[in-house]
Amino acid sequence: MSICRKEFSDRMAENGGITKKAALQATELFMETVKDFLIEGERLLLTGFGSFEMRPVKEKKGRNPHTGEPCIVPEHMRVFFRPSDELAAWVMEMRKEMDTDGMQG
């Protein structure tokens, strides 16, 4: 299941004890700020969470999805997210707990 922006900001409001409107504004501001740093060519490091950065992707062979004809996908920039070791370890631990709880129930 994917979580949309509204659901994300609603959860922020609930967890933070703020209004849904304030949480949505904070979500929008966060996203715009991340975009600004990426456009400026900066690597954004959020300690304990992860990092965002733009990286070049080499030219490659591809196919037109409508016609199936081969084509060349030109070199372009792509956003990459790398979770911090702390976040990755936490997610793995939570998954293990969920798997263990699921087996017992």
Topology:
Layout: H1 5-16, H2 20-39, E1 44-46, E2 50-57, E3 60-63, E4 70-73, E5 76-83, H3 85-104
Antiparallel strand pairs: 1-2, 2-5, 3-4
Helix pairs in contact: 1-2
Domain module tally: 2
Into which percent range does the helicity of residues fall? 40-55%
**Under CATH, the topology of the largest domain is which?**
HU Protein, Chain A
CATH class descriptor of the largest domain: Few Secondary Structures
Separation of the first and last Cα atoms: 22 Å
Main sheet characteristics = 3 strands, antiparallel
Radius of gyration: 19 Å
Q: DSSP helix count?
A: 3
Question: How much strand?
Answer: 25-35%
Strand line-up in the sheet with most strands: 1-2-5
What does this protein structure show overall?
It is a single chain. The chain is an alpha+beta fold and 105 residues long. The protein has 2 domains: 1-42, no CATH class; 51-105, HU Protein, Chain A. It is 50% helix and 26% strand. It contains 3 helices and 5 strands. Strands 1-2-5 form a 3-stranded antiparallel β-sheet. Strands 3-4 form a two-stranded antiparallel ribbon. A hairpin with a 6-residue loop joins β3 and β4. α1 (5-16) crosses α2 (20-39). It is extended and about 50 Å long. The mean pLDDT is 93.
